[in-house]
Protein 1
Amino acid sequence: MARTVFCQRLKKEAEGLDFQLIPGDVGKRVFDNISKEAWTEWQKKQTMFINEKKLNLMNQDDRELLQAEMVKYLFEDGEVDIEGYTPPSQ
């Protein structure tokens, strides 16, 4: 049976992640509170954000910036600010 969580991004019960994808406290918070659906949305945004900002994930500052954006997006109803990207209208 699939694990369900109350997804803080989608504000509903949804299928949870199969395992903790990120180490540490933030990873546990994501595992406990974010659905597969919201995580998949974040991964698309993350790719655009990394490309837009030309982030190097070997660089600690870039990883911290990406993690801050992830927390804002997943937990604070934030949108990822990607220049030149217009989200599709609902």
Protein 2
Amino acid sequence: MKIPDTDTADLHRRLVDFALQTLALPPETALNISPLTKGGSDRSFYRLIYKIDNTSEGAPMDVGGTCSVIAMHYNPERRENTVYADIAQFLLELRVAAATVLAHDPEACFVVMEDLGDEDLWSCRNENWLSRRDLYAETLRHAHKLHRYFHDDRGIPLPALMEGYDAALYRWEQRYFLKEFVEPVCGINLSPAEEEALEKELAELAIRLLSKSDTGLVHRDLQSQNVIIHERTPVLIDFQGLRTGSPFYDLGSLLYDPYVSLTTQERMELLEFYYALSPQVLKWPDFVTLFYEGSAQRLMQALGAYGFLGHRNGRADFRAHIPPGLHHLLDAVSRTSSLPRLRALTVRCLTVLNLGM
């Protein structure tokens, strides 16, 4: 058993012991623990690699060879971390592709789940469009099942979720954008009159997202790095933020993903695909308008996160997402007439950061 000689050695040892118990493997089983550093959350992920023989029981993969699982240790002070395992089970019952949780110890804050590999939708970004389109379409099918949960009654009860989207949460995300991105990253301090006018505009945006779009379950972070491609099939991960909200938030998250740029034609092709999945109360032009508005809301939240993680916490990898995020926001707000002040602010941010139009 390979244990790092660091202050975290005891944690790793306990995590390995929990995994061996979960997999019904002997305690002397040789196991390598390799940290996975991807992402910006307060959870720690590890790949646990081991070998088994033909007589072993409980191994989830590749009997007779090298196997692996993913182990997670989470901070219980952040409530969404504590509901991960129950949401995973719920998604599988709903027939939404998700990683299978093999065991959860809520006292130790350990989760062991199947290892689906490292390929994600982001890593497929350079493939030809026909190949990527199929992966995006299948991802949208899974998202659609979530979005239609309250319409397509399957008798599957909801697990404990985070508080759903309401005016206060939309407002929090908008303020997050201003306080963590516009002010510290762009150095822009709005005058009281400018701030009041923008707040009025964004409050009306929240009202439209709450009143004009059907409430569903939303992933809340449905972007390319949270869609694992396992055997050419999309599987959702990082779904602990699941909650009630507007489907347009998820659509904006995926189709205006700052990590992967889609052309306007590709984006609209996928939006039309989603629109045709079920009967729509909204006419197509109204649907498209709400898509752009939901995308603007999502992109404000994402840019706030890039400001917090990149500027305040010094994460260069997140700072790198600011230019595409801002350009996506400008594109979205430029395609609707309802957000002129947000558009003007986005142009100011691009100008200050010398990112062009």
Protein 3
Amino acid sequence: MAPAQRTLGRGVEWEFDTVVYPRDFSRSAVRRLLVERAENGGWELSRLRIRPDGSRSVVLRRKIIRQRPTFLL
């Protein structure tokens, strides 16, 4: 699934990504996978929901940093 983009607050843009882990993944395994995404991709946890079937739906977010063009004179 492609990450979605939203603007929250003044000038801060966030990129969101939703990941679903099945119920047979242990809590420690999900934690390791989320830590890896946070360290390598700059993602942070926005929301975690445990669905009625036991799967975990995780919404991750990260800031979009826009670079302004620089002009050399």
